[in-house]
Fold this sequence. Notes:
Layout: E1 6-10, H1 14-26, E2 30-34, H2 37-43, E3 51-54, H3 63-72, E4 81-85, H4 90-98, E5 103-106, H5 111-205, H6 210-220, H7 222-254, E6 262-264, H8 266-276, H9 278-281, E7 291-295, E8 302-304, H10 306-327, H11 333-338, E9 342-350, E10 355-362, H12 369-374, H13 392-403, E11 407-413, E12 417-425
Parallel strand pairs: 1-2, 1-3, 3-4, 4-5, 7-9
Antiparallel strand pairs: 6-8, 9-10, 10-12, 11-12
Helix pairs in contact: 2-3, 5-6, 5-7, 5-10, 6-7, 7-8, 8-10, 10-13
Amino acid sequence: MQDSAEILVVDDVPANLEVLTEILSSVGYTVAAVTSGERALKRLHAYVPDLILLDIQMPGIDGFTTCQEIKQNPHTANIPVIFITAFSDIGNIVRGFSLGAVDYITKPFQQLELLTRIRNHLKIREAQQRLEQQVMERTHELQTTLSELKASQLRLIQQEKVSALGNLVAGVAHELNNPVGFVTGNVRELRREIADLMIHLELYERQAPAQEIDYHRQHIDLDYLRQDIPKILASMQMGCDRIQTITTSLRTFSRADQVTKTYTNLHDGLDGTLLILQHRIKATGDRPAITIIKNYGELPEIECFPGQLNQVFMNILANAIDMFDEVAPQFLYQELEEQPQTITIQTTVLESEKAVEIIIEDNGKGMSEQVSAQVFDHLFTTKAVGQGTGLGLAIAHQIITEAHHGSLTVESELGKGSRFIIQIPTVEPHADEPQTRPI
């Protein structure tokens, strides 16, 4: 910007306009000149300069009133205004700054001083615009992140319907709440500290007395600001990184499947599902946090529909958590601390069967043989009315057996817990057999 900037000059004396126009044009500025405050305000309806030079004593609307009108208009409020006038008393100077002017030059002025002050304020304006652009970009990034989260939520409920939607919305909202709140709080503090720095910089730009500068330095605790701002930025970066991690995990969990299978790391899907359920795994008023044990083996990437497998993991894990929440009131809190409610996830390669195996086991109340025999039946549920659809495990069984040609079985004993065993072939059964997703 700077030397190619556009400057509006407002002065009721044509000779002054001519001199200022000549000086500014000689260094490359584009100059627009008007002879009154009324004309200046009218011109600003369709023209936004980078800086305004404004005389105070003019017929009709004086410079003070003109400046006030400019600052009250949101479209022109950020344009720096420099008063250039014969008034040099402290009262007029203070009034000018109180109305929003950034500087005050008295006539007769020196050409070098005029150009230096203009150049400095254009630099400040350019820096402010860059900062505003960065804020807009960050805001856009956050909006994009939130849009991706919402899109992932919509993809997720295609198969899970109402029951899975509750897990997703609650989990994501809970996990995002802390980093978003953290970043928001730091933005407010950073804005305040930058405002103090900008005021301090303006003291130097208008060559304020050393005593005034030193007083302001102590007032804002400049040394502290120099140490605190980098810390705030580092903290905000940590919060953004956390949001990005959550977004990535959610995208991994609810990724839309392609028409054909893709090679996928199943551990990523398991970890993403656990992250979404983290708010339910944590301690509640009735029980301590559920213990998660991960015994991961060395699994190869397998061809699968990853979004559908993640839905299977969600259904089984969410059911285990529901069961723990249901039985927790039957025990003392101390008893559950001594014998923690535990979910164990084990993965391994079955070389002889050319398959991978995922076992999700809990140490809960278990199921009777009759219930175990019906657990994958469509619309079968042991939950109270309104708390389950009876679709989750039925859909999970269909995903594993029909879409992946694998098996999903359950082993359970009353009072000892349940084991859900998933086996998925690592080699396609028949190359000419159609590979389709469940609807």
